[in-house]
Write a structure and sequence with these properties.
It contains 16 helices and no strands. By secondary structure, the chain is mostly helical. The two termini are about 10 Å apart.
């Protein structure tokens, strides 16, 4: 496969996954912002949404304050934000068009249909209720594309590159959600374990479709260390870091077998997976959850760069 084709497939999958992630973050932020003021106090949920998306500096170059209007505009519809939902779907569709012959009919129809439907929204929904429906539509569109890839693609290097894009992006997103909640979202005056803390962790679980899974696994009230355990170490959880790296290693190994050689991407990915498998939640909290996640994000970015050098450059 040409490296340019592989690169288009890889980033197509990453941008579709990123659009869904932004929709989930905005939906969770809407939930948090709806908490009554006597309970919420001085929360900074809209600023945390921008921080979770990883574009805080770019946001404050344009806006002075993070509120519902400015954040939804910047993260959902701004053409000047390369990571907005609109920009993600536009770049994804451009990548898909460049490698249309490498996609199945169902995949092309899914991403092209999403882009055409998005254009009908113009500058965005006119009400909060309509915006909520828009966020749900974004998630459904991502699921439609991902499902069409999973159910129709030949299991070859084209498929493996799309899977790498999905799971590298998903791992980064899950790590950032945890990190921002742990350090930015809870007001300094609010006690950990209080009603606001509980509501916020439940919203985070909903943002990664994990609230029901949490109760199935732990069968008790929402606790921060158990949420972290689910989203970091549980391979059974589709959006956990452990699950993402199990899939990253699997797809990298399939490419190595197909091409007849391994490289630094395979070795580093196995190292991250092994570290996750050997970690325990009490040790992570003792060392510092923030430090653990920051190290993970750095390793995940490093693997993305190595994959680019090894296969896509």
């Amino acid at each position: 496969m040409l490296s340019r084709t592989a690169d288009n497939l890889y980033w197509l999958a990453r941008y579709v996954e990123r659009a869904e992630y932004l929709a989930r973050i905005l939906e969770a932020t809407q939930r948090l912002a709806s908490v009554p003021i006597p309970i919420a106090g001085g929360t900074n949920e809209w600023e945390s949404a921008v921080a979770t998306a990883g574009c805080e500096n770019a946001f404050f170059e344009v806006y002075e304050e993070a509120n519902e209007e400015t954040v939804t505009e910047f993260l959902a519809f701004s053409p000047d934000n390369p990571s907005s939902i609109r920009s993600c779907f536009e770049v994804a569709r451009t990548n898909a068009r460049a490698v249309r012959t490498a996609l199945t009919v169902e995949m092309w129809d899914a991403i092209n249909g999403t882009w055409l439907e998005l254009k009908r929204y113009g500058n965005g929904p006119t009400s909060r209720e309509e915006f909520s429906r828009f966020l749900r539509w974004v998630q459904e569109s991502s699921l439609l594309f991902d499902g069409s890839a999973y159910r129709t693609m030949l299991r070859s290097d084209s498929y493996w590159f799309t899977r790498l894009g999905v799971f590298l992006e998903r791992a980064d997103n899950t790590a950032r959600i945890l990190d921002v909640k742990y350090h930015l979202l809870l007001p300094e005056a609010e006690h950990v374990g209080g009603p606001l803390d509980y509501f916020q962790w439940a919203a985070i679980l909903r943002s990664v479709s994990a609230l029901t899974s949490y109760h199935w696994v732990y069968r008790e009230s929402v606790k921060p260390w158990l949420v972290a355990d689910l989203l970091i170490l549980k391979e059974e959880m589709p959006r956990s870091l452990a699950n993402c790296y199990e899939n990253i290693v699997t797809n990298l190994d399939k490419m190595a077998g197909s091409y007849g050689r391994q490289g630094p991407a395979q070795r580093l990915a196995r190292g991250v997976r092994t570290r996750l498998q050997n970690s325990r939640m009490d040790e992570i909290f003792q060392r510092g959850l923030h430090e653990f996640i920051q190290e993970f994000i750095a390793d995940n970015n490093r693997i993305g760069g190595i994959i680019t050098q090894q296969y896509l450059a």
